[in-house]
Amino acid sequence: MKRIIFAWELGAGYGHIFHLLPVAVKMAAKGFKPYFILKDLSRTEKTIGPHGFPVLQAPVWLAKAVGMPPSVTFPDILFRAGYFNVEGLTAMLKAWIHLFDLIKPHLIVADHSPSALLAAKALNLPKVIIGNSFTIPPRAFPLPPLAPNVDRQTVLKREKLVLDKINQALARLNIAPLEQLNQIFDADETFLCTFAELDHYGYPRTDVKYYGPGSNPDAGVVPEWPKGNGNRIFCYIYPTFKGFRRIIKALAKTGCSTIVHAPGLSRSQRKELATDTIYFADEIVNIKAIAKECDGAICHSGAGTGTFFLLSGCPVLLVPLQLEQTIAAKKIVELGAGIMVRPEARKRDYRKAINVLIEDSSMHKQAREFAMRYRQVTPEKSAEEIANRCALLTQ
């Protein structure tokens, strides 16, 4: 039985697992043996556990990077992941190589896993990359910046710094150096799980195919909607978000029937914020089902969550926490299918934003038009196509 490793190293949330899992399920049905090597195991028992696939902890950088400049380039992200420390990076690469030696995979499927890709390159293993556009920069020199108004010299300087660190680590392992940073993303195939209009880097790419949302939101519970004034809102945000309480209280004042999924919500928070019109769902919620029933959604705009609601014609209110989410939120706002409350804004009127989400007819129209434009695209079809391509690479 041929073995496939599904790797996830950087980032957070459900999205990375949900990019990999549907493909793994399809591959298992074709007779392959999936193995998962993941950054965060806290949610694997509920997601991967029922399928019985082996799950291992990914080698990751745990020390907190301090004194770093704001992340405006992909090299900045790598520095925060330990790439500023040659000894630490060498150890991570060694660990990935040892894991690959133990499992002896026939293919690596990597989501936001640069160290895994470098290790696979060192062992000359077949590999594919899957993920959203943020985690897969365009193949360019230098890699394009993630923020506007970043001068070319800054981009070149930061890219050279991280490339030097990578090559020092590779030299310690007697592995050939990289000539350019974009060689990290050398792969047998790349699966870009987004749409051209939502590409984080701002322009459609011609060298790769857009597969739409590769992850499958058709998993989890479908709670009953609480009583309300007729409008239904689904809210998926973290309770650690500074505006969490204000958003929940604003939702209560609207009288909308609301389902909230807030991973890590404490009992005391739930007790404080509970109302007759708000239901807090502890389990993972079936976004595919819930998106068909709600009139608007609120989320951080991470890992394609907002896209799933657009595919159901549902507009979104976006409250990004970090750079990747902020870029994704801006793209949805540019489409006219959502509204964003900027994280840096001093005055954040969530009640007003929720009213816009419910009442803005043009926003609802744009969301419906997006759904119609991509009505033939489904996560199930994308996962099947990706699995078929992966199977061919193992022959």
- Overall pLDDT metric: 92
Please trace the helix and strand order, writing H or E for each element: EHEHEHHEHEHEEEHEHEHEHEHEHHH
Distance between the termini: 12 Å
Based on the coordinates given, report the CATH architecture of the largest domain.
3-Layer(aba) Sandwich
How many beta-strand runs? 13
Which topology of the largest domain does CATH recognise? Rossmann fold
Global morphology? globular
CATH class of the largest domain: Alpha Beta
User: How many helices?
Assistant: 14
Instruction: Give a quick account of the main beta sheet: strands, pairing sense, barrel closure.
Output: 7 strands, parallel
**Regions with pLDDT < 50 over 5+ consecutive residues?**
none
Question: Could you estimate the helical fraction of the residues in percent?
Answer: 40-55%
Strand order of the largest sheet: 3-2-1-4-5-6-7
Radius of gyration, in angstroms, nearest whole number: 21 Å
Count of discrete domains: 2
Which percent range describes the beta-strand content?
A: 5-15%
What this model shows, in words?
This protein is α/β, with parallel strands linked by helices and 395 residues long. The chain has 2 domains: 3-213 and 378-393, Rossmann fold (3-Layer(aba) Sandwich), CATH 3.40.50.2000; 232-373, Rossmann fold, CATH 3.40.50.2000. Helices cover 40% and strands 14% of the residues. The protein contains 14 helices and 13 strands. The strands form 2 sheets. The chain has a 7-stranded parallel sheet with strand order 3-2-1-4-5-6-7, sandwiched between helices. Helix 4 (86-103) packs across helix 5, helix 4 packs across helix 6 and helix 7 crosses helix 12. The protein is globular, with a radius of gyration of 21 Å. The model has no long low-confidence stretch (mean pLDDT 92).
